[in-house]
Amino acid sequence: SIVADDIASIGARATFFVVGNMGKCIYDEDSVQALRYSYNAGHQICSHTWSHPNIETLSRPAIDQQVQLVEEALFKILGVVPACIRPPYGSASPSTIQYLNQKYRSLHAPQNVIIFNHETVPTTSNQVIPQALQIVRQNGYHPRNMGTVAQTVGFAPYKVIGRPGVRDSSWTCAGKPGGGGW
Question: Which residues form the NodB homology domain (predicted)?
């Protein structure tokens, strides 16, 4: 991806928070290839939920579905289960964060980490990232001081590391919740 390449061009790594089904399905071949490309380039992949809802409006079973669908997809595609979640809109009460941590052993991404949203918006990849990287360079930051959420916070990036799956009929968003976009 353009963003993965731009960040890697300065020797840094980023964390990409992915959505399963929001206007585009995570199982679409171009999405699969982009995820594998970013992961293989050393970037961290985390969950941003399945369909980008405000999780504070969801029941616990609905939150479970949002988390589990992304975890299942990322295990099929990459062979990993992410250890962090960033709730959409940054909206998560202390009790929701506690629930996610207890049930999924997942770290809620801290707010003091630079997060660029959203790669699906063209201005992010062709304006925001290049300008941010220029500012990083101009201010003397070094890539060794910039890392993934896991590196910054000091935890393992994945709860499970295995082998990617082989595409089959289960690689679909049909019949699963879908978001409509921003």
Answer: 1-182
